[in-house]
Amino acid sequence: MIEIMGFLAPFFMKTVNVYMIRHGQTFFNRYNRMQGWSDSPLTPEGIAGAHKVGERLAHMTFTHAYSSDTTRASNTMQIILSHNMNTTVPYKMTPLFREQFYGYFEGADSAQTWYMIGAPHGQKNLHTLLEHYTLDQTKDFMHATDPFHDAEDAVTYWTRLMKGFKMLREENRNGDNVLLVSHGTTIRSIADKFGKGQFPIEEGPKNASITKLQLTDSGINIIYYNNTEGLLQ
To answer: pTM for this one?
Structure first.
């Protein structure tokens, strides 16, 4: 609420455009290993992908830039910002937009991990799991399968992410364009939760792809998902 002539009136935020980018390819991506809060360096292909997306975004003006606090995300953002004409974009790293935490499965072979998680539910991999269950259910399945139960369940995960969106709203009240580098499962989860079934979330976003969100008074809207080519708006 804001005060106008002694009366309280609702505050209406202007639309915030968030260009959410998956970090460039890493060695764990290349080796098909689980990479949540664990980290590995960008591959040469990952560095080239970050430069490519930086070139695609170079014509746009951004008022703020954010990334998760993983090295792969921050290095991707630094490359992107090196291409932008506005070299004074304020930049913040935050744990709120980290990848899902995979607990015991961090660094493990992805195919083997999803077989262990899916087998009790009659499924052999993540793709078939998603044909029968939601992404949030897979988070809960992973938490249950983890012998330490350290992997984030859906409630824990979304509590963290929504704090991140609250931060974006509070720091960008003027209808800003914002850059955000995050992670594959996180971007896929956001598209699933807020995309109203419009996007093929069984296909994860590619490294260095762009997903556009709009934050409004009424919620979060997904404008496009997993964009890798073409003119950006």
So the answer is: 0.91
